[in-house]
Design a protein that fits this description.
By secondary structure, this protein is an alpha+beta fold. It contains six helices and ten strands. The strands form three sheets. It has a four-stranded antiparallel sheet with strand order 1-6-7-5, covered by helices on one side. A four-stranded antiparallel sheet has the order 2-3-4-8, covered by helices on one side. A two-stranded antiparallel sheet has the order 9-10. Strand 6 and strand 7 form a beta hairpin. The chain is elongated and about 60 Å long. It binds a DNA duplex through helix 5.
Length: about 280
DNA sequence: CGTTACCTGAAA
DNA sequence: TTTCAGGTAACG
């Protein structure tokens, strides 16, 4: 479900709703235990009970709750995880797995149909940097930095952009959108991009992500913000989920192919496969 | 490097 | 009934 813009949207909502609150307890369902990946609920509770949430940050697609003892509660929503802040007496609703109880009677509730999401306590959140590439919206994400991440890679550009160690926060939707904006075919071998193409891609990544944030995220299935509201970026997408619809630039029907095992949307006219080999719009 | 597994619901 | 799903880690 969530890529950088969706996680950022949730982060902003959570910052508004729960910053400064203390965690007074936890509710964990049997299906929710998997969240902790083997850490006993009691051990997790011992780390968070009584702690004040001083800040909510984001790194890539991770949500980081800075606690008042210096520890960090790290959550990843994977495909279908949701965080919503609700009154403690509201119904749990579908896919409810766990909740952190707050000192004002509300709860930070976790719902996750597919149960891929994870919760952890981390004493050294900087360790995430070893596994994650640069933040694409930060100053230090330069054209050179992107060029370095792509250099020598033979994998399709789309696969490289989805690799969180190269650039953090991009997922299937925004990669397709960025490649379309940059007029680059998703199957182009990453290392073959010209300097001009890398520069276009660099700008396109930021445009696609900024737009997603400005529209409060893209809701295709399960994404909702911290208050249960849907994002409105879906109607602004240029290619993702628009198979068969005319390209806004040239009118050619948007194609859907598979790249790196992922459904991939592109305009075969605006994004010709001219980098190597022969044109291949279909497939 | 590509493929599979992890789960389960929703859509085709 | 079958296919697909916005993510990632673990395979071979």
């Amino acid at each position: 479900m969530p890529e950088l813009p969706e996680v950022e949207t949730i982060r902003r909502g959570l910052a508004e709703a729960v910053r400064g609150r203390r965690i007074v307890g936890i509710r964990m369902t049997p299906a929710g235990e998997r969240l902790l990946r083997g850490v006993p609920t009691e051990a997790f509770l011992a780390r968070v009970r009584g702690r004040r949430i001083d800040d909510i940050r984001r790194r890539g697609k991770y949500l980081l709750f800075a606690l008042d003892d210096g520890a960090t509660f790290v959550a990843h929503l994977r495909m279908t995880g949701r965080f919503e802040v609700e009154p403690g007496d509201a119904p749990d609703g579908p896919f409810f797995r766990a909740a952190l109880q707050l000192d004002d009677g509300r709860e930070l509730r976790w719902r996750d149909a597919r149960r891929f999401g994870t919760w952890a306590i981390c004493d050294e959140p900087a360790a995430l940097d070893a596994r994650l590439g640069p933040e694409p919206l930060d100053e230090d994400f330069t054209i050179d930095r992107l060029a370095g991440a792509l250099a020598g890679r033979r994998a399709p550009i789309k696969a490289v952009l989805l690799d969180q160690r190269r650039v953090a926060g991009l997922g299937n939707i925004y990669v397709d959108e960025a490649l379309h904006l940059a007029r680059i075919h998703p199957r182009r071998s990453a290392g073959t991009l010209t300097r001009d193409e890398v520069a276009r891609l660099h700008a396109a990544i930021r445009i696609a992500l900024d737009k997603g944030i400005a529209n409060f995220g893209t809701t295709f299935r399960s994404f909702v913000n911290a208050f249960g509201g849907e994002g409105r970026n879906r109607e602004h997408l240029l290619v993702y989920g628009r198979r068969g619809e005319p390209c806004a630039s040239c009118g050619t029907p948007i194609a859907r192919i598979v790249v790196g095992g992922r459904g991939t949307h592109l305009c075969p006219t605006c994004q010709p496969f001219d980098g190597e080999g022969d044109a291949d719009a279909g497939r």
